[in-house]
Description:
SANT/Myb, Arc Repressor Mutant, subunit A, transcription regulation
Amino acid sequence: MGRAPCCDKANVKKGPWSPEEDAKLREYIEKHGTGGNWIALPQKVGLKRCGKSCRLRWLNYLRPNIKHGQFSDVEDKIICSLFASIGSRWSIIASQLPGRTDNDIKNYWNTKLKKKMMAMNASPQRKPQQMTLLSILQSSTSSSTLSFRDSNNSYYHPQGSFSYSSSLLSGNNSSVSASADSFFQAQESLGVKCQFKDSISNNSTFVCNNLSHAMEPEFGDATFVGANHLYSVAEDTTHKLMFSNAASGSVSGWTDKQNGLWEQNPLDYGDLEEIKQLIGTNNSCNNNFLFDDKKTEERVSYY
DNA sequence: AACCCTACCAACCGCATCAGG
DNA sequence: GCCTGATGCGGTTGGTAGGGT
């Protein structure tokens, strides 16, 4: 036995909404709110619509501050980055793009962006560029890309810079007391903010912009949870820094420092290979490391 | 002008989860 | 703890507009 339908399907109107229906629904909700009960709403409003249909119409079309139309490059990048890291969790992605609805983003992805990504992937692979860390820093615009600056004690993140010095890198440390094999860890939530704290003292000693920093002894590497990846950064005594995907263990994007030059994966939209795999396998959540399966914590409230 | 194809997007459907009794 | 109705989410469908032949 299946579950009971949410409404009497024989008596509800389906298909496109008329301007009159829109006006009725908008007027009612603006006046009275949803009342926390979408099922009962159509009757109160005087609409022959299913409650779910009303909810969808409101959330995707009528609700204030909805942004329709062209997606910007920045939005493209955010979508791609997030898709690469969390898969097709459109409501979460939508929560990072004010004014955009999950439905909108989903449609945009399925009709345009996915093809764009595939086209980019099909184009001849560009050779990794050799560039100084400073130039990487300067060219880095993606909100989800983590970058490092090879100046004495500075690391850089596109959303804010912070200073970090360990004795490995600079020989001294002015801001925190870190041992030679200190470990630092950064967590970034969905490309929006990143906090560091000193895990030895448990102090948020150098929160710089939206970064915080945790330091632990005994480990010679670091972990970044970025919007794209969980990154590992390994340090050794020769000042080698290496980014790798901590989830898969594979090195991604960055290679060793060589003669003061660094190689950067020429990737602008997150990890294309990963996106390609996601598209290909239709497996959207394999590498979801930011969320557990309990959806409660990810739920996004619209109203 | 008629037909076909493709892209786009609003809306639907079914399932998972939540929350209250 | 179980049951049931409500809600939220993501996949999919179907209608339509626009361009090409």
